[in-house]
Write a structure and sequence with these properties.
This protein is α/β, with parallel strands linked by helices. The chain contains eleven helices and twelve strands.
Length: 247
C-alpha cells in the first residue's frame, strides 16, 4: 500500500481500480481536523489522475469506514471555529461527491453522523450485514447539516426526518430497504461484492462513465426540462471521444 500522506493509503490494480484506505484515525475511523485535511488532500490528488476508473473508500479497521466526526474536538469549538470545522468536512464530502470517477463506499460496522454524510456523498454504497447507520447529532446538541441534505433525495423525506429527528439507529437490512445502501452482503463477502461492482464500473467506457457521473450530479441540481436538454450536448460530445465507435 502506497501512503499518499499519513491518513491515506492507496492500492491500485491494472484496470484503474483504486482503493483508498483512511489510516491513523483510530479504531472507529474518526474525522478530526488532521484526518479531514489528509483525506481531502488524497482525494484531490487522485482526482487529477485520468486513468482511475473506480475509487473504493475503506476504513483501516473492520469497525467502520468512517465512524463519525470527532465529538471531543467539537466540544471545544465556538461559533467561528465550529463553522470552520464543518466547512472542512463539507469540502471533504464534496471531494468525494465531485470525484470524476465513480466512488464506492465500503461500509462495515458503524456509520454515524459525518461518516454517513460522507457515505451519502459517494456514488455506490455496499454494506456488510453488521453495518449500522445513524444521524445522532441532535442528541449531542448540534443539528445534522451539510451532506445530510442528500438524505431526502436518497431515502425520501419521511425516512430522512425519522433518521434525523429521532436520531434513530438502523441496521443494514433496513438501510437497504430504505435505499440508503445499494447492496448488503455477509461480512465475509464484502470485498468480493465490492470487486464485482468495481469490475462492472471498470469494464465500461471510461469517458462515458465520467460524463455519466457528471450528468447525474447536474441532474440533482437542475429542473427536469433543463436536465433533459443539457444531456443532448453531452451525448453528441461523446462521439468525439471515439468510444462509441470502439464499442
Amino acid at each position: 500500500m502506497q501512503m499518499l500522506n499519513s491518513c491515506c493509503g492507496v492500492t491500485r490494480d491494472p484496470r484503474g481500480v483504486v482503493r483508498l484506505t483512511i489510516c491513523n484515525a483510530g479504531p472507529l475511523t474518526i474525522l478530526n481536523t488532521p484526518v479531514i485535511a489528509g483525506v481531502r488532500e488524497g482525494l484531490t490528488a487522485l482526482a487529477r489522475d485520468p486513468d482511475i476508473r473506480a475509487l473504493i473508500l475503506a476504513g483501516q479497521t473492520e469497525k467502520s469506514m468512517i465512524g463519525g466526526a470527532d465529538i471531543k474536538e467539537m466540544a471545544t469549538l465556538d461559533q467561528a471555529s465550529a463553522e470552520k470545522f464543518i466547512t472542512t468536512l463539507r469540502d471533504l464530502c464534496e471531494a468525494a461527491r465531485q470525484f470524476p470517477a465513480p466512488v464506492i463506499a465500503r461500509l462495515r460496522g458503524w456509520c454515524l453522523g459525518g461518516g454517513l454524510e460522507f457515505a451519502a456523498a459517494c456514488d455506490l454504497r455496499i454494506a456488510s450485514e453488521d453495518a449500522k447507520f445513524a444521524m445522532p447529532e441532535v442528541k449531542v446538541g448540534i443539528p445534522s447539516v451539510i451532506h445530510a441534505a442528500l438524505l431526502p433525495r436518497l431515502i425520501g423525506w419521511g425516512r430522512a426526518r425519522w433518521l434525523i429527528l429521532m436520531a434513530a439507529t438502523i441496521d443494514a437490512p433496513t438501510a437497504l430497504n430504505w435505499g440508503l445502501v445499494d447492496q448488503v452482503v455477509p461480512d465475509s463477502d464484502l470485498d468480493q461484492a465490492i470487486e464485482v461492482v468495481a469490475r462492472g464500473v471498470a469494464d465500461c467506457a471510461p469517458e462515458a462513465m465520467r460524463n455519466q457521473k457528471a450528468l447525474l450530479r447536474q441532474w440533482e441540481e437542475l429542473p427536469l426540462t433543463e436536465s433533459v436538454n443539457l444531456s443532448i450536448g453531452v451525448f453528441g460530445q461523446s462521439f468525439l471521444t471515439g468510444e462509441p465507435q470502439r464499442h
